[in-house]
Amino acid sequence: MLQRELLYAALGTGFTCLATVLGAGMVFFFKKDMSHTMQKVFLGFAAGVMIAASVWSLLIPAMDMAESRGQNVLLPVGGGFLLGGLFLMALDRLLPHLHIGSDEAEGLPAHWKRTTMIVLAVTLHNIPEGMAVGLSFSVAAQDTASGALAAALALAIGMGLQNFPEGAAVSLPMRSQGVDRWKAFACGAASGIVEPIFGLLTVLVAGSITGVMPWVLAFAAGAMIYVVVEELIPEAQLGEHSHTGTVSVMLGFLVMMLLDVVLG
Fold it and tell me: What are the distances in angstroms from CA 196 to CA 10, 49, 225?
């Protein structure tokens, strides 16, 4: 059973990673960096997708799973959610990284190259995404007749839709700053590799400890919401009230919600 769960998780996270790679490949077709308006649109859309995915694809399944096992819903779902947020907060404080358009690095002091720290900033976003997709496909592998596979596919499509521009958001700015085209592509593609890595690791952890799945689903949701509130929504607003950023968040939420309802 665990082998099938890992296979499903590998396929799901492989798809979302491929979307990031394809997005990074836009550096071969466009010379200019993204406009501030387009950055707002993509960041807001990603935030909306992640919020909806956290609710429909992670928290609600975690509650249902806990109830079906006779567990107290509040402890695994609430506890896992808080632990996920604390985990991302710790990574945010410890891992040196630099957001695109910023000159001030975050995390522990490090004399790393600017390109390396930009890739690490996007990698932080992709960790909870990989966990979420990997877990969804793991649940689908356990019971292919329950509709969980359709829900996992909906989540993968939603994440892929927002990963495509995310890959371009890494490679295009690097190219505009004079970085070699192939190196810019490699950096954008590398930011997505963390998704299958963390997706498979999370499935291994969830599969090795009985009854931990509701905790891990809620953990992934907490990590995603932390990324949305800490990084994506503030960057989508870019320091000002922005109708563009706000509408993009709502559009991303709507798209992910419809995908889950229609496919799931």
Answer: 6, 19, 20
The CA distance from 39 to 37, in Å, is 5
With the C-alpha atoms ordered 83, 17, 10, 15, is the resulting torsion angle positive or negative? positive
Q: How far apart are CA 223 and CA 155, in angstroms?
A: 16
Joined together, the tokens standing for residue 76 give 């695994």
SS (H, E, C) the chain: CHHHHHHHHHHHHHHHHHHHHHHHHHHHCCCCCCCHHHHHHHHHHHHHHHHHHHHHHHHHHHHHHHHHCCCCCHHHHHHHHHHHHHHHHHHHHHCCECCCCCCCCECCCCCCCHHHHHHHHHHHHHHHHHHHHHHHHHHHHHCCCCCHHHHHHHHHHHHHHHHHHHHHHHHHHHHHCCCCHHHHHHHHHHHHHHHHHHHHHHHHHHHHCCCCHHHHHHHHHHHHHHHHHHHHHHHHHCCCCCHHHHHHHHHHHHHHHHHHHHHC
CA dist 73 and 71 (Å) reads: 6
Q: Nearest-5° angle of CA 228, CA 231, CA 235?
A: 110
Q: What is the pTM of this model?
A: 0.85
Residues of the chain with pLDDT under 70: 1, 31-34, 99-103, 144-146, 208-210, 237-242, 264
